[in-house]
TrEMBL record:
<protein>
    <submittedName>
        <fullName>16S rRNA (Cytidine1402-2'-O)-methyltransferase</fullName>
    </submittedName>
</protein>
<dbReference type="InterPro" id="IPR035996">
    <property type="entry name" value="4pyrrol_Methylase_sf"/>
</dbReference>
<dbReference type="GO" id="GO:0032259">
    <property type="term" value="P:methylation"/>
</dbReference>
<dbReference type="InterPro" id="IPR008189">
    <property type="entry name" value="rRNA_ssu_MeTfrase_I"/>
</dbReference>
<dbReference type="GO" id="GO:0006364">
    <property type="term" value="P:rRNA processing"/>
</dbReference>
<keyword id="KW-0489">Methyltransferase</keyword>
<dbReference type="GO" id="GO:0008168">
    <property type="term" value="F:methyltransferase activity"/>
</dbReference>
<dbReference type="InterPro" id="IPR014776">
    <property type="entry name" value="4pyrrole_Mease_sub2"/>
</dbReference>
<dbReference type="InterPro" id="IPR014777">
    <property type="entry name" value="4pyrrole_Mease_sub1"/>
</dbReference>
<keyword id="KW-0808">Transferase</keyword>
């Protein structure tokens, strides 16, 4: 579908961030995001109850029983996604709401966005809180080069292997590595990281971001082993690590890349 079809009277797909921590007062969503969210009455949502609560919280002008909610998860079928696309092809604007944070970032939404692009529907990401970016800012590990790997494996051995791989990649490339865990496994993951990673690797956790009891801690693994772990169980958290760079290996990879470039 050509780019020109975007202006062919189709509806738009609006990706609407929701607060990471909802209190009585809105401190994270700008007026422009709220204005667009209040103008829509068709939403693809991760959880209908949560979505209805959010719309009530932002004082959406349309009564809940007149709002159209469509289920959206990582397992939503392609056939169902096509139904949502057809709505937009017929001129209806559609908003995407997940439980907290940004649609498509460790949350449902990416598959619907992909389908929208396929049919020339304009996709509009709106401004709001994104926990990986806030964690990247708050941990101070550097954002010039970073990767977000989402959830780690739940099995202990696979998780330890993944942590070592992330550390090795960081040492080779100088990148910051971000990841997350199901809240009830936060402490388990922190313990695994402090017992698996090298002593000089920087390790941080950013929990309950944007809430009054927000917690951001960053130090070397050796320091983590000396301190009492914070109570981060059953609250949303993002972890970050940055390994001391393996200079010899980095230089070797650089020489290899240069050699490949000139031999091409």
């Amino acid at each position: 579908m050509s780019a020109e079809s975007i202006e062919a009277g189709f509806g738009k797909l609006f990706l609407i961030p929701t607060p990471l921590s909802r209190t009585g007062e809105n401190t994270t969503l700008p007026a422009a995001t709220l204005e667009i969210a209040r103008s829509l009455d068709h939403f693809a949502v991760e959880n209908i109850r949560q979505a209805a609560s959010f719309l009530q919280w932002i004082q959406h002008p349309v009564p809940e029983f007149e709002v159209h909610f469509f289920p959206l998860s990582k397992s939503t079928s392609e056939l169902r996604l096509q139904e949502y696309v057809n709505l937009m092809l017929n001129g209806t604007d559609l908003g995407v709401l997940t439980d907290a944070g940004c649609p498509g970032v460790a949350d449902p939404g990416a598959d619907l966005v992909k389908q929208a692009h396929k049919f020339g529907i304009k996709v509009v990401p709106l401004t709001g809180p994104a926990s990986p970016i806030l964690a990247l800012m708050g941990l101070g590990l550097g954002g010039q080069k970073f990767a977000f790997s989402g959830y780690l494996p739940s099995k202990a051995e696979a998780r330890a292997t993944m942590l070592r791989e992330l550390e090795q990649h960081s040492a080779q490339s100088g990148s910051t590595e971000l990841f997350m865990e199901t809240p009830f496994r936060n402490l388990e993951t922190l313990k695994a990281a402090t017992s698996t990673l090298r002593m000089d690797t920087q390790l941080g956790v950013a929990a309950n971001l944007t809430s009054p009891d927000e917690l951001i801690i960053m130090c070397e693994v050796s320091e983590w082993q000396r301190r009492k772990f914070p109570d981060i169980q059953k609250i949303p958290a993002i972890f970050g690590l940055k390994a001391a760079q393996d200079v010899q290996l980095a230089q070797k990879l650089k020489r290899k890349a240069v050699k490949k470039k000139f031999s091409a």
